[in-house]
């Protein structure tokens, strides 16, 4: 047998050798196997909130032989465990009296044995170090005496691991908040909304009316019309502008998770809830929550949302107390909620609560005067995102082609078209020939249709413009003189300048 002093020293060095408790425990396991008949080593705590034994770390020859990380304990057995005065190392097997025999079955011991070392600090049981043997007769008194010597360093290691776990959880919450701040609370000021003086003028007038208040706002409109931008404009023009702006896509959250995501949950509220979690409403405190696609909310969640709107209080899943929240609620949908009420798919009382100030966002086909400004905006934005230094020009007649289209996908479809055009024509003119004119139901553009495998030619002005632009790029904008674009194109510089003015290059 190893000397107790040597065993203590080597175990202490190994258990304190890494900040990662799993790594340190694996190192201890390698050493213990030299002196103890064990197949596995685990560090566990009694989690009163979960009513379970929770494993902090495990090192074993075969981890499949061990129970899950969290082992729920029946209430009767849990009461017996809580009442047990465990102060000395003990051997647990299936042949002992209760509650040891029940614990042995719970932890899949069968014909095996487990030597547990209680870890006490400040008169409180912090957890246990469990050593498992392949047979119930493998542990002896000398093993208990040897293990007792390392109680103190292992207890300190466990306390550090639990403290690290709490710090890590806090760091994760802070990191999560930071992700929300960067991704979901992002700033998009009202002056970024294109068409404030055009097709969106009535909408922006209503935004200016309701923004300073704290009323619930319902945004209605087809998919892709820019409801989220309007929600941003309301938030950042309101008294809540310095608070968070939390976006929730109600249709993207699985039904069984919706309550937890929106309202949070307490530790132990359900299987897997190993820590408390703040919901979106709690995160939006003193700010705005934007409930996009509210028509997708299941009926049970609608009931809880109605209560929030009425009382401005939330209750976490598994919680026993109501928490007040100071929030502004903005909801949006492309669905007809009134029809859904008649079909019993949406609660009428919630509909009345949301419909205090409805705001209809017009589709792009009803605000075509905004298309040129939107197109230029998206070209600038996408060119910057794609790293295109020289923004491509719009070919003559291209904007007219865009104005003739009916845009069933609204502003989002226009944005996607611009991005696709920049990918294809990043070094040439943006002609938007890929626009599906047949789907618009309007007059065909002046571009000749393709026949069979023959590709339609460009309009002459488009082709000349592209040719001149290519020459100007090669000469870095120089028109006349040696090496100028006029010399390259073999025309008089004055003629070239006249054509540049005519084609509005």
Average pLDDT across residues? 82
Number of strands: 13
Q: Tell me the fraction of residues in β-strands, as a range.
A: 5-15%
**CA(first)-CA(last) distance:** 92 Å
Summed up:
By secondary structure, the protein is an alpha/beta fold. The protein has helices at 4-15, 21-32, 75-83, 100-106, 141-148, 151-184, 201-210, 227-235, 258-263, 280-283, 299-311, 337-342, 348-354, 371-385, 398-404, 410-424, 437-440, 460-474, 485-489, 493-502, and strands spanning 40-47, 52-60, 70-72, 90-92, 113-121, 124-133, 217-220, 245-249, 287-292, 313-314, 323-324, 327-333, 358-360. Residues 182-191 and 438-456 have low confidence and may be disordered.
Summarize the topology.
Elements: H1 4-15, H2 21-32, E1 40-47, E2 52-60, E3 70-72, H3 75-83, E4 90-92, H4 100-106, E5 113-121, E6 124-133, H5 141-148, H6 151-184, H7 201-210, E7 217-220, H8 227-235, E8 245-249, H9 258-263, H10 280-283, E9 287-292, H11 299-311, E10 313-314, E11 323-324, E12 327-333, H12 337-342, H13 348-354, E13 358-360, H14 371-385, H15 398-404, H16 410-424, H17 437-440, H18 460-474, H19 485-489, H20 493-502
Helix pairs in contact: 1-2, 14-16
